[in-house]
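Hi Y.,

Following your request, here is the sequence exactly as I used it, all 147 residues.
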Amino acid sequence: MTSENHTWTHRLDEVDLDELSRLYLLAPLGNKPPEVLATVFGNSRYMCFVHAGDVLVGAGRALADGVDCACIADVAVHPEHQGRGLGSDIVRRLVELAEGHKKIILYAAPGTEPFYRGLGFLHMNTAMGIWSDPQRAVGMGLLRPAD
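Below is the corresponding structure, written out as tokens. Let me know if you'd prefer a different format.
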């Protein structure tokens, strides 16, 4: 764990959703309104929230079926707390919570592959996706265009 004094929780009802939404804007992971975050975290089997004092400085979640597959998503760290190991700690905690699943997969932003490789993740050869806005996803480097 990081050397700083952080408080961890794994309960959505202990988090201010407006503050969580601001964290995703700052991280920057995009605009995720509080009502959207209530749904995606509410439907996730595992979640982590990290506070430094009264300030939410980190979050992450994992969808999971309990046996076969878990998928880590939405790992966010406040910019003032990045580079200190907090993101690694959040991912490690989510991997611990999902222990026992046959596979743990991860959706991440392009360019973050070395970070996740350092946490034991390997590149997948067969991952594919359908996005609500595929042209935007291709432009952002999330998807490769069809041949």
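The mean pLDDT is 93.

Thanks again,
Q.
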